[in-house]
Amino acid sequence: MDYSAYKEPRSASELSSLIKEANLQPISIIPWGSGSHQRMGHPPSDKELLILKSRHLNAVTEYSEKDLTLTVQSGITLGEVQAFLKKSNAFFPFEAPHAESRTLGGILSTSPYNILSYRFGNLRDLTLGLSVCQADGTWIKGGGKVVKNVSGYEMPKLFIGSFGTIGYLGEITLRVYPRPEKTLILQGRAPNPVSAFLALKHLFHSKLIFSSAWFEMSTEKSQLFVRFDGQEKLIANQVEEVTNLLSNSRTDSITDIQSRLNRSEESFLYTDGDIRATGSVPPSLLTRMVDAVQNISSETKLEPHFLWSLDGAFIGSWKGEPNKTFLPTFQKFNQTVSSLGGWIIYTEVPGLLWRDWPMWGEERPEWPMTLQLKKLFDPNEKLNPGRYLRRH
Fold this sequence. Notes:
This protein is an alpha+beta fold. It is built from eleven helices and 18 strands. The strands form four sheets. The chain has an eight-stranded antiparallel sheet with strand order 14-11-13-12-16-17-15-18. A five-stranded antiparallel sheet has the order 4-5-9-7-8. A three-stranded parallel sheet has the order 1-3-2, with helices on one face.
């Protein structure tokens, strides 16, 4: 990408002015947080580009310990949010690979899977309100600053996962939680994927209270992880019950079950590779997804490293030397994911493959409506043109 210029607005009014000025020129606007996911989706169309960085829009504007709500500007990083909340023994229940250094605006715009969503919900559940600078430079607001039920359609939900194509996020109001007394991760070795998924199924149908459960698959190992957040006494009881459940599954047992307290050791979350992807399929069909991933590895010799959640979500990567000859194999894989009723998005591919790669997988039923929303909110295609779904 040839970025022609960049600006770093220091206020909402300056951001608005810059967008209004850009509307008077033949240039496109690229919303930019930390820049970590700018390669997610297609490259912007070949026009003169203006990057608007949010690094100076990073203030905490309001915090209510009583209501457990936090309002921040979009340029603040997740790490900064957690550090602020820690002072009052609270936390924002969101975790994703490499997310600590990412801005809240970037996280909401790309909407990565929340590792803790099984217990706390996804980003749309945790976002109470947004202010958004539209493509013409005018501001709109939606949602609120308290946790309550809202009748009617919640407009802010449209901007979560929109990749900066229909508006520039300004202020964000989040739902936060009391900080857990203890975090513990239970880890066990699985003899094969079938055993791991059966264990996940038993966990799903149990009455146990845990924050997440994942199965890790790579060429070197297969492991199961169960995470607990809460009071120390409650966690101790839950760990005992989970250990018994996993050891006495109706298939090959999960072995070498160990617990650990150091959250920084959650290296299994980081599936770095030359091709990275995320997506979801119905939980009952996860074993067929494992077969599809292994087929790719057999045909391309790329090494897989995947994480599978008990709700059907997955995060994964392939490591090796991918090239254009692999494209038909991955297109077939995308078709398999679609046939299973799932979806896939590629979050990283090598630069030489970027423009030709099917970054959004197979076409999905909601795409026509998405394109109509783009025309409604950004009729002149000023914001990230061509990045989402199709190049124009």
